[in-house]
Structure formats: structure tokens, C-alpha cells
Design brief:
The complex is a heterodimer of chains A (about 160) and B (about 130).
Chain A lengths: L5 H13 L4 H5 L2 E6 L2 E6 L16 H19 L3 E13 L9 E10 L3 E10 L8 E11 L4 H6 L5
Antiparallel strand pairs in A: 1-2, 2-4, 3-6, 4-5, 5-6
Chain B lengths: L2 H8 L3 H6 L1 E6 L3 E6 L6 E3 L4 E2 L1 H16 L9 E9 L8 E10 L3 E9 L6 E10 L2
Antiparallel strand pairs in B: 1-2, 2-6, 3-4, 5-8, 6-7, 7-8
Classes of the chains: A alpha+beta (about 160), B alpha+beta (about 130).
Chain lengths: ~160, ~130
């Protein structure tokens, strides 16, 4: 399964750390598994992402944001030589109320890549409850390929 | 339902505070809101563009308010969404206008448009469904 190179794994870790700010940093995402078959990421529980006063029900939007982010990572892993990537469209089905204070797990993969477009699919569940999917998403991304790779752009001159 | 009361409801929702937006206008079929840019909204740290998920979340929040501005505990229950990303959301305020296209007894369909400086140049367009029971 894991036919991904050590170099790619190091690049991903560096790129993730180089962000320093923004939503992905705020979500405190942890990569659990990476292979060309797909990626699995964990998002720790965060009360900021809830809708209720008791803070135990996640807003759907954060699950959408999570899927969008992890699709991007899945594409970076699956496709060589991408210079930029932009979400073209995104569809998310909320399958159950996201009521739990458990960590959230996302599994996503790129099921088709062409020169210009990548197609993604992914599922979301609470850690330990893989049988009770809370959301499922599909997206397409517009890719540009060029001299400057996404990795170079993300890590160049970034120290923070 | 006046805008002030709705914004008081909005400020009680932790995730709405995270998004940091205010409802600007409201009637029985529409809601319009403005979100203030923050570093935690960034998706592309080099260009400092909004994260697509933040744009979709803000549009979902505006749609839920258009459907149920008088929500007591939690906002209207979302079923699903589709978003088209048309332009990058750059650093600065982001606006959203939600139109309730159909509101039945059990379900509602809402279309949402989001833009920045020019309403004619949409950043994203979305379709959201809500369960009202």
C-alpha cells in the first residue's frame, strides 16, 4: 500500500509546517497515513468549531473546510509537478449530526487526475466510529503545472 | 425579526464568532452578511486568499439565517451543499447574500452568492438544503 517515497513524506511535513498561519494551522491537522491510495488526517476536537452553547455539536462548515483541505493534500501526494491548485467545485452531504467531542478523521483520495483537473472523494467520521460516517464529499480541482512546484512555493523563505 | 436581535443570536454561536461576520440586512426570504478577514481564514498563505472551506462555511451560515433567523438553540440543520468557486477570495471583507428559493414544511432550498468589491464579480456561488423538522 505505502508506495510513497520518503522524500515525498518529508516534503509534506515541511510544507505543512511552513504554513505557520491560516485555517489549516488553526485546525491543528495531524497526518495519520499517506499513500498513493489516499490520505488520512486527524483533526483534534476544537470548541471554536461548534454551534451549540454546550460545545458538542460541530458546524457543518468545518467538515466542508476539512474535506477541502485534505483533498488538496491528496492531490499533492497523487500528482507530480503541480504548481498551483484551486478548488473548482465542492459537494458535501451531511449524513448525521456531528455531535461528539471526539477527534475527527478524514479519509480522502484523488480518483482521477488529468492534465488540468483532479477529481476527489472523501469521508469524515469521529475517531473510533468509522461505521458512522458524518459527512461525505466530492470535489474537482483546477491544476496548473509549471516551473515552480507547489512545494517550492510553499517552503521558499518560510521560517515561521 | 430585526437585524440587531439576529446578530445577538449569531454572537452566541461559537463557530459564527470564529467566522466573525455580521448580518447587514434581512427579510422573510433573504439575508445579507459581511465577514471580516482574519489570518485564521487563510487557505493559501502565500497569496493570503480565503480558505475555500471558510467561504463555504460563511455562505452556509448566511443561508441558515435566511431560512431561520429566529433560531433558538442551534442554526437550521444543513442537509447538503454544492459550491462553485469562481474567483479567489482576497484579503479584505467578504459579503454573502442568501435567497430562499423554496421553503416547505420539511425542507428549504437556498442559493447563496458571495462577492468582495463588486457584486457582479462573484467569488463563489452555492446551493444549500436545510431540514426544518
Amino acid at each position: 500500500m505505502s508506495d510513497i517515497t520518503q522524500k515525498k513524506m518529508e516534503q509534506i511535513a515541511q510544507m505543512w509546517n511552513a504554513r505557520g498561519k491560516g485555517l489549516i494551522t488553526h485546525m491543528a491537522l495531524e497526518i495519520e497515513e499517506v499513500s498513493t491510495e489516499g490520505v488520512r488526517v486527524r483533526m483534534p476536537f476544537n470548541p471554536d468549531f461548534c454551534v451549540d452553547a454546550k460545545q458538542s455539536l460541530l458546524h457543518g462548515g468545518i467538515l466542508t473546510a476539512l474535506l477541502d483541505s485534505v483533498f488538496g493534500l491528496a492531490n499533492f501526494v497523487a500528482i507530480e509537478g503541480v504548481s498551483t491548485m484551486a478548488t473548482l467545485d465542492l459537494r458535501v452531504d451531511y449524513l448525521r449530526p456531528a455531535r461528539s467531542r471526539a477527534d475527527v478523521i478524514v479519509q480522502a483520495y484523488c480518483f482521477r487526475k488529468t492534465r488540468h483537473i483532479a477529481f476527489n472523494s472523501g469521508s469524515v467520521w469521529f475517531a473510533g466510529h468509522e461505521d458512522a460516517e458524518i459527512a461525505r464529499g466530492t470535489a474537482s480541482f483546477a491544476l496548473t503545472r509549471g516551473e515552480t512546484s507547489l512545494f517550492d512555493a510553499m517552503t521558499k523563505g518560510k521560517t515561521s | 425579526m430585526d437585524v440587531q436581535t439576529v446578530n445577538a443570536n449569531v454572537s452566541r454561536v461559537p463557530f459564527f464568532r470564529f467566522l466573525n461576520f455580521e448580518v447587514r440586512s434581512l427579510d422573510s426570504l433573504h439575508a445579507e452578511a459581511e465577514m471580516t478577514f482574519d489570518d485564521r481564514h487563510i487557505g493559501n498563505p502565500i497569496m493570503e486568499y480565503y480558505h475555500g472551506g471558510i467561504i463555504a462555511s460563511f455562505m452556509e451560515a448566511t443561508a441558515a439565517i435566511a431560512v431561520q433567523p429566529d433560531f433558538a438553540d442551534v442554526p437550521a440543520k444543513p442537509i447538503n451543499l454544492t459550491v462553485d468557486y469562481l474567483r479567489p477570495g482576497v484579503k479584505g471583507p467578504l459579503f454573502a447574500r442568501a435567497n430562499v428559493t423554496r421553503k416547505g414544511k420539511r425542507m428549504a432550498s437556498v442559493s447563496v452568492l458571495s462577492w468582495q468589491t463588486d457584486r457582479e464579480k462573484a467569488v463563489a456561488e452555492g446551493l444549500y438544503h436545510f431540514l426544518l423538522v
